[in-house]
Amino acid sequence: MTATQPLPTLLVIPTGIGCELGGYAGDALPAARLLAAASGCLITHPNVMNGAALYWSDPRIHYVEGSALDRFAAGALALRPVRRQRVGLLLDAGLDDGLRWRHLQVAEGCRASLGLEIGPVAITDAPLDVSLRQGASGASWGQLGRPEVLLRAGRKLKAAGATAIAVVARFPEDPGSEALAAYRQGSGVDALAGAEAVISHLLSRELGIPCAHAPALSPLPLDRDLDPRAAGEELGYTFLACVLVGLSRAPDLVPLAAGLPGAGALQAAGADLLQIGEVGAVVAPAGALGGAAVLACAERGIPVIAVHNPSVLNVTAPALGLDVLVAGSYPAAAGLLVALREGISPAALERPLRRLVGVG
Amino acid sequence: MSPSALNLRSVTLRLPRGSGSLLAQIESALAAEGQPVRWAITAVEPAPDPLAGPEGRVMTIEAVVLV
Questions:
Q1: Could you give the C-alpha distances from A248 to A58, A90, A101, A154, A205, in angstroms and in order?
Q2: ipTM beyond 0.85?
Q3: Does B66 contact A at CB distance below 8 Å?
Q4: Is the CB of B6 less than 8 angstroms away from the CB of A14?
Q5: Measured between beta carbons, which residues in chain B are less than 8 angstroms from residue A139?
Q6: In sequence order, what DSSP letters do the residues of A149-217 get, joined into one string?
Q7: B8 touches chain A (CB under 8 A)
Q8: What is the pTM of this model?
Q9: Which residue has the higher pLDDT, B24 or B51?
Q10: CA-closest candidate to residue A246, choices A200, A284, A283
C-alpha cells in the first residue's frame, strides 16, 4: 500500500460494550487486517483478533493482552517480537470432564495441525468461580470468586517453562436468557467479555507474560436467526483455537519502568524493542475513548483517530476535551493512517481548508 | 502480592473532571479503592458546581479492583 516505513499503530476496540463492529466473535478482524496493511505495524488486543475457531495470523499484527496494551501505552512496557511462544494451558477445575477433554484436544489439534508449541498444562486446585455482571452503563463486567487460585496456577506454569498462558475458565450459562438471544441476533452486549478481560488482565499483570482467555461453555442449540458477526462462536466446542494461535506469536512484554529487576539490561539490549515513542497513531471507537491506552496516547500527543462505531458508551472526544481525527468508518481510518504514514497532513484532505492563523 | 485473601471488588466512582492529566486523576482515585485490574470511563455528564470540577463535568468510572 505504501513504500514508507511502518507507522506503528494501536487499535483499541474495548470488549463487552457492544461495539457494532468488534463487539461479537472476532468481527473486527477484517478492520484489523486493513489497518495493518495501511500502517505496516498494528498492535491490538485479543478482543479484536479472537474469533473462537476463526483466527488470522499476520506478521504485521502484534497480539497484546489489554492490560499489557495499557502498560505499553503508559511507557511501562516495551514489546519484543518473537518467533514463537511456549503456551502453557491453564484449565479451570470447574470444567466438567467432557469440557476438559474437548479443550485438551483443541490444544492437541493446534500442535498437530499448526505446529504450535503448547504446554505444560495445569488444572487449578479449586474452581475459579466466575460470575458475570452488567454495569450501570450496560457494559459487561465480571469477577472471580478465587483470584488467588488463578494466580497460583499461572505461577506454576511460568515456573515450568511457559512463556505465555492460555486460560480456559468455566463460565456460568443461561442459554434461555434474553441477553444471550440479543447477542446472537446482533443487538446485544457480549455478557462474557467483561469477566474474560478481568481474568486475563489479572494474570498478565501479575506474571508479566502474554495471557489470554477462552470461556468454556456447552454448545448452544441451533439459532436460525444467528447474526453473521456471532457465527464464529458457533462452529465448534471451544473458543480456544484463536487464543492459542494469537499467543503463539504474541510479543514478549519487557518492563521499562525504572527500578524493576533487569529493566536496565533489557533496555540496553533492546534495539529490536517496540516502544510507545515509536507509535504514530491510536484508533478507537469515537464513543469509547475513556480507556487507559487511549488516554495515555492522547496525553503523549499521539494522534487519536476516533472512528464511528456505536456501542453502549458515549464517552466522546468533546466530552473528554480531546483533539482527535474523526473517521466515519474503519476504511476512512485506514486512509488517515496512510496519510500519517506518508507525512500528509490530514487537515489538507478536508474541505473547507481553514486559513492559517497568526500567532502573537 | 500475597496469594492469600485476595478479593476482586466492583467499584463505580463519580469524579469531577479536573484540569491536568485525566489519567493521573483517575489512577489516583482508583488507588484509594485497591489495585485496579480493569477500568473505563463509562459516562461524562455536565454537572452543576460544586460537584463538577473546573471543566464543569462529572465522569463515571466503572472498575474492578484487587483488594
A1: 12, 15, 21, 17, 19
A2: yes
A3: yes
A4: no
A5: 40, 42, 62
A6: HHHHHHHHHHHTT-SEEEEEEE----TT-HHHHHHHTTSS--TTHHHHHHHHHHHHHHH-S-EEEEEE-
A7: yes
A8: 0.92
A9: B24
A10: A200
